[in-house]
Prior knowledge:
26% of the residues lie in helices and 25% in strands. It has 153 residues and is α+β, with helices and mostly antiparallel strands. It has one domain: 2-Layer Sandwich (Alpha-Beta Plaits). A five-stranded mixed β-sheet has the order 4-1-3-2-5. A hairpin with a 3-residue loop joins strand 2 and strand 3. The longest helix has 16 residues, at 96-111. The two termini are 34 Å apart. The model is unreliable at 1-38 (pLDDT under 50). Residues 1-39 are annotated as: Disordered.
Amino acid sequence: MRRARPGATSRGSAERALTSVAAGESYKPGGREEGAVTEEGPRLWHVTLSVSGADAPLAEVRRGLEQLAHDHPFLLTSRYAVDHAEIRYWEEARDLHDAAAVALRLWGEHRQSSQLPPWEIVGLEVIDRDTYHQRIAEGYGPLPATPVGVHPF
Length: 153
């Protein structure tokens, strides 16, 4: 059984080949310059950070996430429960490596100042702006962060 992402169309027997790109290199589809990553500076990355751990009082989790949103102004939305939370936001960074590095430090660096629970990061997704909007347009992927803010699951 062949699995495909939602919205993918079959192109007969022709399959798209996966191409590896070493860190720091640019992908050039078909050897063409169009569509290649350029040195234009920082780009926007959509980050989804998932954390979980031992149960914590719901009111304290909410207050901590609200403080984190205040401290990190690009935070779009947070969803939470007594034992896990999901944080979604836009990060400006040169490349995916930088955006992921910042995301992986976010919880630990703000845990004390925002009085967040001592949970661990259990998931991270970082996608570029074009991929985020393509997913939305095709009807899959994370829904736009509405309403913005801190909400229970």
